[in-house]
Amino acid sequence: MISGLLIPSLLGFALLLSGMKAMETSLQQWADNKLSTWIARSTATPLRGFAVGTTASALLQSSSAVTVLTIGFVNAGWLSLSRSFGIILGTNVGTCFTTELMSLRLHRYGVPLLAVALFGWVLTFLLNEWRDASRAPKRVLPLRYLSVAFGGFALLLIGFKLLQGIGPAMQDNGYFDLLMRHTNENLLWGVLGGAALTALVHSSSAVIAMSMGLAATGVLSPDAGIAIVLGANIGTCFTGLVASLGGGAGGRFVALSQLALNAGGALLFYPLIGLLHAASATLAPSDPSAQVAHAQTLFNVACSLIALPIAYLPKFR
């Protein structure tokens, strides 16, 4: 019974995480140094930095990648503190893009998307791009990266579907049912678990997607799923904190400001989880999975808009 539950759970989460990393890596390789140039030139004000952080995180499917890049720019003296703070605020909003896509119930198309991605990858191999990428025609390179990104997204959808499928088995298992009921009754455990798991796997989107899958089957309540969202936002700061250890004061400021923003937002909205659930339920009345995704978006947008004026204070200049 345990093996029949544990194996699909681990496999589903592994596919979620692998898909996320495949998308992140391929899109980063595609952007290359053009992303660095774009960020440096497009963040003249904190508001522009906010827009850039949102867009870059949505495109790269990784707020951590943009945060680490921002830390490097600040340490190099290319970005001011106010502009970097705007980017950090934007990363929290941009990271909602993946979970919002998943709330559209696209998991039924996971296998067809994987087949399309595989076809694109094979095509680049036939064009000799795989064996010698440096000499490949420029028009072929985007096809390779997009094929891998689509493949990663397909794996993510397949993993999400697997997690949805284990719901009935979890409800029949006394241990997991007790664990989920304990989390549903004490939302603080959801916050702590979401933070710890996100710090461990370096992907808040994967952890939130897992909670969406469990909420869709009724194993996890939407309130508990939202608590995991709050924790995941704290856990995602771990990568930036590690990246800032070897840099200067500016880089540490970026990492600590992200931690202060996300932890402060979690503390602010923890008593308001019921309100977040009610607001997201008006957008998706009969879909607990989508409610978790919408609550994440509402939470991150609200926190970023509340904190954005701080970047315009004189001491940030």
UniProtKB/TrEMBL annotation:
Keyword annotations of the record: Cell membrane, Membrane, Transmembrane, Transmembrane helix
Domain of life: Bacteria
InterPro entries named in the record: Na/Pi_transpt
Main subcellular localisation: membrane
Example GO biological process: sodium-dependent phosphate transport
Alphabetized PANTHER family for the sequence: SODIUM-DEPENDENT PHOSPHATE TRANSPORT PROTEIN 2B, SOLUTE CARRIER FAMILY 34 SODIUM PHOSPHATE , MEMBER 2-RELATED
NCBIfam families: Na_Pi_symport
Name of the protein described by the UniProt record: Na/Pi cotransporter family protein
